[in-house]
User: Fold these one by one.
Assistant:
Number 1:
Amino acid sequence: MAVNINTVYTTVLYILNKEQRGYITPGEFNSIATQVQTEIFESYFPDGNQLNRQNQNNTQNDTEFFNMFKDTAYKLYPFERETTFLYNTPNDGWYHGGIGNIFKIGEIISNYTTTNPNYNSITQLTSKSDYTKITKSKLTSPTVQYPLCYTTQTTANIAPATTSQLLLKINPKPNTVTVNAIFQPSNPSWGFTVGGLGQFVYDASSSVNFELDISEQTNLITQILKYAGIIVRDPEIIQTATQEAQQVSVNEKS
């Protein structure tokens, strides 16, 4: 379940108003909300790595509902999906032609449908330098059973992207490619109309909720307040929100 953006914004405004600390506009809030969501989303990966080490050392709580590594992985599930990559002849590579921006690539499956038998092969992702060394050797040269690939960037835009995008260079060339990937969350936005008195009125139809799990609602509010303190130039808000965020982080990782 995602976090409702109107709930977060109204809570932030309520706290600021109650403490007489100022006001942030919808535009300012949306910019802060995007930054905070990105920071929380990206924190899952180093946090997950740290918690996984606790699993390996048998120091992680494995009780149902209290395994923090599983909880962190659960928060990433909405962003994980399987997507088909398309082949681009001018760039001689495979790219994501669907909606959304890929944050991390997971398992790559190269499908060879013109061979007998057909192969759906897990593809090893390596660096460009290792790729060159491996493909030059007859003993280690990739096959349809054990394909090899590396990533690069396009030199020209490929629709629907508006900028250069990630390309997979796969050897041998497959017929189709399927990738399990983590996608970046959409930017949140508090949409509004202007009322008769010039006030901002929430418009759910033009709004975009946070895509983070509902358990992150308190964290979102706290982190947004920290940045709101910068905008309204109140160091006390920054200090209080920072201390609260640090305490939440300590409680989650202890």
Number 2:
Amino acid sequence: MYILSKLFTYIFLPPSIFIWILLLAGFMVKKFKWLFFISAILFYLISIRPISNLLLSSLENIKTTNQKANLIVVLSGGSNPNDILKSSPDAFKRLSYGIILAKQNNLPLLFTGGGLKKPTEADNAKKDIELFEKTFNFKLKTYYENKALDTVGNAKYTLKLIKQKHLSKKIYLVTSAYHMKRSLMIFKHFGFIAIPKPVGFLVNKKDYNFYDFLPNMESLNDSYKAIHEYFGILSLYLRGY
């Protein structure tokens, strides 16, 4: 029963159902059937674990060092003000690791992230940090930047804030592993000495089984994140970063 349930999930729920629709359209139409078949194949490939791992592997291959820094900088990654814990899953990993690093190294923490809505991502992160402090009885030295709308904005407005507060540009940069390479390019462009502290690795290093070759939303989402990063890195090169 378990196997039948799993197979139903993988075969008939998204993204598989859309792959079936594309294949069916390819058999039914006369013109451009090759386009439907190619779309189905590409959709299938980016929806399976081996391909998402392949796309992510070079992004998450990050060299880390034991070099010391003077400030923790945590990049935003989405939030939900209606949740008990306001930060989204990716953002919560970043924030939690930033707090751990701040505690371990006795360093101040700077969170950067605005957004188009109120409360800002910085506002939500502040509530999460305050909840941690109250629950576990500790206090961090914290700073919040609430204007950035993207990673370039994170670096730009963080630089402005640390100049105002006379903070160091030698930082531990905390963000998701798949996002780290692009983040390092940007922060170094703005003059930071950025030491990478990645978290939330998505590459699942294991022996593949039958289910890993069936389309699923998790792999599709991971592939999307990787492709988004590659386009982001390309845009940085084109802009001279």
Number 3:
Amino acid sequence: MNLIIDIGNTLAKLALFNNEELVLIEKVTHEHFVNRALQLIAKHDIKQGILSSVILLKKEQIEKISKRISLLELQASVEVPFKNNYRTPNTLGVDRIALIAAAVCQFPNQNVLVIDAGTCITYDFVNSSGEYFGGAISPGIQMRYNAMHTFTSKLPQLELLETTTELTGNSTVNSMHSGVVNGVIGEIDNFVRRYKEKNGFLTVVLTGGDINFLANKLKIDIFAQPNFLLVGLNAILIHNNQ
């Protein structure tokens, strides 16, 4: 059994894989992930794990887990199942590394664009030869709402509503919703179109916290994969233990 620990900006995810099969997934707060990981280790037959974090962790947090199992901490120097041609590999986020690993393992020999719609929206492209060159990063949906409120004196603080898809807003609030939602949808559609024009056949994967809202609003064919990052982390762990 493999233990997968993904520390995001707001929550931590813990998952168990039996080889390539996802058998358990949980979300916990940052302060509780160590205790929950130790509980899972005590309960299940776990010999190895991988930890990925976009925030700075304390050394003792990692050591508590690594004393119990063989723990791989994902960083730029870790071996991955793709060729990394990113010009500044040491600055490449571990979340993006995991997403590309999932892409090449789930869709081998294909051009794949992975769109992670979370705090930020990231676009990562890997070609059919398993070569990764980079992508793009833009503000996520909630970040756009926050920015309009923070950097103006009169625009209110808003949050995403399921019904906010109208093109023409008939109030300031509705206009803000239209700008954010239709702006994100237009941005994603445009990125996909341009990658298809440049590379021909393209597999598009959508993941991240806003996947449920966006999946049925995009005009493109996509694979909606809510646990794609966890799959990638497990693929990296398997790749390093072959």
Number 4:
Amino acid sequence: MSSALSDVLRLPSAKVALPELMRRVHPDDVAGIATLVENTWRTGSPATAELRVVDADGAVHELIISCRTATGHRSLPAARLWGVAQDVTPIREKLRTTLQIQVNWHAVRRTIDAFHRAVLPSTLPVIAGVGLATVYLPAPERLDVGAAWYDAQPVAGGRLLLSAGKVAGHDRHPVAVMGHALAVSHAYAHDDPDPAGVLTRLNRFLTDTCQDDTFITAVVALFDPETGQLRVANGGHPAPLVVSRDGDGGASARSVTATGPALGVLADVVFPQSDLYLAAGSAFCVYTDGLIDRHNDPMAGGRRRLLQVAEQVFGRLGQDQPGRPAAAEFLADNIVRDMLGGAAPDDDVCLAVLHVGTDD
């Protein structure tokens, strides 16, 4: 063999007896290399194979072997064979390392996604005269997903408590914090569903128990289908919006802008509330900033565009063919689709839509 190959295999000489060389080949590769040589010898056709060879120090090398006849003519019998060996051990090691990293990444991501799905509501409450629909889209290339949530639960008096929020911080994984936040929020809402009260108590819980940089933004809304009254409280979260028919029969979207500070930062804060009336046929939307923020286009004016998209989608209600989805589902699906424009989200996207009135 060449001195270069001899050096690769750390052999004392470039002249090696065939039995000695084959003894160093991995047992699983012996039959393959023998078949390759036999076929090339018989047919004159060049061939390539991979095999593992142990060098004189016991290290395994992965080689690509190219075998061909010395004459190079298939029509002539081979007088001898010659071959070229390329040591691809570093390339294969790098590939295996990359594949293992990918396997580990996907395993972690599956665990996070499964936990997040378990924390989010598996079903939405059914309340007469109210349509509910939600969308959750995680950012596909991130492991810090699971920070965003939506929630809907019936409370005393036939009312509905709707919320959306997001966890921020670096010291703990957001999906773990989200699980605690939703659990205590459910308990507070069961005791007293007043939106500002729920945020106040959740804020106190966070400031008392979190000793790191974790904080939460959230919006909580309480809707009474009997009266159409909607009470909204906001803790540092993107402003929810109301979409309804305007006087000309078109659609009008407006933000509910009253907001307080984020939760978990200051112990004693006041969260302002807005009292609204939702007329039949109108919709209320809460969402997370993944719906409006685009990293590749930070100047896109996400909130303003969301108002425009919501009006356009709302204006299409009733213009679809028979068998169209429920109004809330139609609004949620189409708002997300039009906002993302077919692109994957840069961050978790949560959207919850409450539509007042029947869906037929």
